[in-house]
Amino acid sequence: MKIQSVIVALMLPISLIAQTKGNTFVYGDALPDAPELSARGDYQVGVRTLKFVHKDQVDILNSKEGQDPLYDRPLTVEIWYPSSNKKEGGDLIQYEEVMGTNGNPERPILPFTFYGRASRDAAPMTGDGKFPLVVVSHGYVGSRYLMTYLTENLASKGYIVVAIDHTESTFRDAAPFTSTLLNRSKDILFILDEVAKLGAAKNEGFLSGLVNAEHTAIIGYSMGGYGVLNAAGAAYSKKALGLFAGMSGGSKALTVRGADSEEFKRSQDSRIKAVVAFAPWGMVQGVWDSETLKGLKVPTFFVAGSQDDISGYENGIKAIFNGAVHADRYLLTYKNARHNVAPNPPPAEALEPGLNIDEYYRYADPTWDQRRINNINQHFVTAFLGVHLKQKDYGKYLAAKEDSNEENWPGFVPRSSTGMELLHEVPKE
């Protein structure tokens, strides 16, 4: 081994060098001080890749003056689900991912792999009834594998978890931002519908009779947060429609997700019972205003870093939390964290000499250990979805004292709940 390689290996955090099949720590595994509900559930986890096509969608990237051409929009998803696999501890699975950004010469596409705990194409668990549905939306750019620590964890607790590769918004196929602005919430609602159909009892697929889409949660990070809030009722403001100003066909296209749109009103889906929004983007840019935020009435759990320099905190994420006055809502804040409060830890390859620092900071936070954030997210998302989708008695975990430094939070190891804040507001009548 070269001396340089030895030095790099010695510098890697444990969370990075442990991503090999022979070691025990895998993204999402519990650290010694992980809070109570972060532990994996009783189910083994299966995983499959499926492809869908959303027909006749506006091809915003090729719109021209007065013309909005249509195209069939492909969407790849990963589905994690409770499995009947009997292997104790489950199987290690290797996910194939890339870093970099399509079309950016300073950040060329570089493949890498990492491990999770699931079995590819395993038989689903039957006999335990239907499982609530969770739809997950990544950031720009990102992928369906960006939060496997959470998707696997929720599947092990009895959820059908579907993470979307948003076309024209992934590492591999990143395209101009207008596609993400237009399509994010539309993709989420389409996939909800399609997976609900797969889960119907009359369907002959592997999910037949297993999906309780009447109890659905939608989870989004960054631009995914932008999407889930809109999908759940927070229409885009008139100012948001101006984000497309000067782009042929753009303003007209985005109006379908605005407050005055009949299509938007018809798309409101009563099956969505809970929303988790990690660092949602858009408030600083005027995507919502005080009136459009009132349309969010679904219970919502926000997660933010107090130093978020992408979505903003006081005038960004916290302003959304304060403005969504008709929702029962929480805001978990990691003090001094920036934007990356949702992804997996950085892959070991992100520390290779000569790579753009953005490959590391696509995942890492400069203040917090990402493994620690992952465990805390698992804990609170489990509590929140357990209350709203499974009617579990997890309220005590959400009733923590506002400042975590003042009192040890329920479910946390003694002396471990430091550096956080949890706000809760009930909806106005």
The CATH homologous superfamily corresponds to Alpha/Beta hydrolase fold, catalytic domain
Q: Sheet bearing the most strands, described? A: 10 strands, mixed
Query: What's the Cα radius of gyration?
Result: 21 Å
Q: Topology as H/E string?
A: HHEEEEEEHEHEHHHHEEHEHHHE
Percent strand: 15-25%
Shape from CA axes? globular
How many helix segments?
12
Question: How would you describe the overall organization of this protein?
Answer:
This protein has one domain (3-425): Rossmann fold (3-Layer(aba) Sandwich). Helix 3 (148-155) packs parallel to helix 11 and helix 4 (177-198) packs across helix 5. The protein has twelve helices and twelve strands. The longest helix has 22 residues, at 177-198. 52% of the residues are buried. The protein is an alpha/beta fold. The strands form two sheets. A ten-stranded mixed sheet has the order 5-1-2-7-6-8-9-10-11-12, with helices on both faces. It is globular, with a radius of gyration of 21 Å.
